[in-house]
Specification:
mainly alpha
């Protein structure tokens, strides 16, 4: 494998996200699928031959040691933080430039 694909920034929004944590892991898009499989399917891997979207690179999410894991972005032992309510802000015509 030459590389793991393009660099894509991501935000983790969750009541269990580690506060102020910056993740410097090398991740691929497969990290999200692996997180779902590990967290919600008990580690069972979705078979790329039967999920209607064949994965031609299964080793990317399973066997490449350099690739990290999204689980490191969370702390499920912490008390979940309350949701943050974003307030709407109306812009008057006089405030527009």
């Amino acid at each position: 494998m030459i590389g793991n694909g393009i660099c894509v920034p991501a935000l983790v929004i969750s009541p269990y996200a580690k506060k102020g944590y910056v993740d410097h892991q090398t991740l691929s898009f497969h990290a999200y699928l692996k997180f779902i499989e590990d967290g919600f399917l008990g580690g069972e891997r979705i078979d790329p031959l039967t999920n209607t979207r064949p994965d031609l690179r299964p080793t990317v999410r399973l066997k490449v040691p350099i690739l990290g894991d999204r689980i490191k972005d969370f702390d499920f032992s912490q008390q979940p933080r309350p949701h943050l309510k974003l307030l709407l802000h109306q812009v008057n015509a006089s405030q527009q430039k």
